[in-house]
Amino acid sequence: MRLIGLILILSTATTHAELLLDEHFFYNDGILQEVSAGKWTGHSGETNQVDVTDGGVNLTAKEAQDVNTLLLNAPYLGANGAVLYAAFKVNFSALPTKTGSYFAHFKSASATGFRGRVWAQLTADKKISIGITSATSSDPVLHPAPLELNTDHRVVIRLEVGTSLTSLWIDPSTEADASVQSDTGNPLAITSFALRQASGIGTLRIDDIVVATTFEELTGRQAGSPVIVRSPAGLTVTAGMPANFSVEAAGVDRLVYQWFFNNSEIM
């Protein structure tokens, strides 16, 4: 009797046209590339290091893998006046260094085409400072609001694709809240959002990544994002026999879903 293992990925989303990425890491614990069934891929550094536990991604200075995931309807071009917003939740459990490094950014199809790099550095009074660079990869412009260890904070960035100018907010309520801005540079065709592990970043956890074309869309998704109440359980059945999976989800907006098997839509 031959047995087969089935893996199905459930995604929940709403019909907002401006939503380019809505990632809450509702995966089983394990290597991100594997448990996301290839939605996230490595583009530099080591392989199979970035991992998911308890519905969040762990990044550490002790590892060196970089991963990315494609944005809906990419590429986004400066010639078209594209503006991209990204937001994510971050929680540091170990301090970065004084020089720090960047741990998240927008990415082009090129292996080294990065814009909107989000940095972590340690201030003189032992506080975590978040900064931004875009065309360069050093000397970030730091946001004046410090972050506390073991505390959730919301980071928001805005990239003007045509100029590479990037704005950075920490825990904003509106787009008018205090922000800092990066350097400018040549435009790149943006295709994806990326996470990076490197010496200097400390230890941190990323969750609830949203990419959109307006600040309002980010704010709405943070408040009304769908939540999986009960995940589908793994199942092994005899080859050729049916397998039944179910999931329970809740959210403010009307929920839609799609089942996948080996990266192909089913049902």
Outline the secondary-structure elements.
Elements: E1 3-6, E2 8-13, E3 21-23, E4 30-31, H1 32-35, E5 41-45, E6 51-53, E7 56-60, E8 65-70, E9 83-94, E10 101-108, E11 114-122, E12 128-133, E13 141-142, E14 153-160, E15 166-170, E16 180-181, E17 190-196, E18 203-212, H2 215-224, E19 227-230, E20 235-238, E21 248-250, E22 256-261, E23 264-266
Antiparallel strand pairs: 1-20, 2-22, 3-18, 4-6, 5-8, 6-7, 7-18, 8-17, 9-14, 9-18, 10-11, 10-17, 11-12, 12-13, 14-15, 15-16, 19-21, 22-23
Short description:
With 267 residues, this protein is mostly beta strands.
Identify the notable features of this structure and list them briefly.
9-stranded antiparallel sheet, disordered N terminus, 267 residues, single chain, 46% strand
Describe the overall structure:
- Helices cover 5% and strands 46% of the residues.
- The protein contains two helices and 23 strands.
- The longest helix has 10 residues, at 215-224.
- The two termini are 27 Å apart.
Helix segment tally: 2
Strand count, sense and closure of the main sheet?
A: 9 strands, antiparallel
What is the rounded Rg? 19 Å
Q: Outline, from the CA principal axes?
A: globular
Distance between the termini: 27 Å
Give the amount of beta strand, in percent: over 45%
Q: How confident is the prediction overall: mean pLDDT?
A: 86
Structural class: mainly beta
Summarize the helix and strand pattern as letters.
EEEEHEEEEEEEEEEEEEEHEEEEE
Give me the count of strands.
Answer: 23
Low-confidence blocks of residues? 1-17
What percentage of residues falls in helices of 4 or more residues? under 10%
